[in-house]
């Protein structure tokens, strides 16, 4: 079976490619663990100074694999499960290396949060971005409410989180959720061009630039992300969450009771 995450070094650039195209790069536990392992290794290596995250197939990442929603591969609490996954996003934010994401197709739920945890996002016109967790009886829990607010403001983030609706590439660009939009055939080349240009700069300058700019929102994002942890740990115990899961299995509209 092919590796679900590919890692290669291209000069001063480390490239991580999501490689589960048949599932729109939805992450199960094994894929998520491998991504964290390769990401953390990339952040620590001395031979590269920037990271590009991209994807094979039609979509960037459709979030957590729906087949394992609510499951815990390890014997851990909801609290520890969510907190462990938050660390990956917060480490991306705190990293000294710039991270560029090339996004396309579905960037949904955790896949959207992965994209917005990057420092710069290049999209193609097929992008559909969403934070749909409310439709599953929960809420974003790896920085989505915080990082998206820093990018597009509170009102637009409330719309995305409370409605769960998708936004297209043009809207994402207008709102500031992505930084560049190109035609599908141009995405890899444009993302590589930007990433290589940044990777060629002095590493200490890149680290200090990211550190200074992150002072604007970094501490707020970290604090707010922990609030997501507490909220999500609570929501996993509600009757409405169980109803959302049952409705999904039974292919019917949920009947929420606010309990």
Task: Explain the overall architecture.
By secondary structure, the chain is α/β, with parallel strands linked by helices. It has helices at 29-44, 78-94, 110-117, 144-152, 154-163, 169-175, 187-199, 203-214, 218-235, 239-250; strands at 5-10, 13-18, 50-55, 99-103, 106-108, 120-124, 128-130, 167-168, 180-182. The protein has a 6-stranded mixed β-sheet, sandwiched between helices. It has a 3-stranded mixed β-sheet with strand order 5-7-8. Strand 2, helix 1 and strand 3 form a beta-alpha-beta unit. Helix 2 packs antiparallel against helix 9 (218-235), helix 3 crosses helix 4 (144-152) and helix 4 (144-152) crosses helix 5. The protein starts with a strand and ends in a 9-residue tail after the last helix.
Write the layout of secondary structure elements.
Elements: E1 5-10, E2 13-18, H1 29-44, E3 50-55, H2 78-94, E4 99-103, E5 106-108, H3 110-117, E6 120-124, E7 128-130, H4 144-152, H5 154-163, E8 167-168, H6 169-175, E9 180-182, H7 187-199, H8 203-214, H9 218-235, H10 239-250
Parallel strand pairs: 2-3, 3-4, 4-6, 5-7, 6-9
Antiparallel strand pairs: 1-2, 7-8
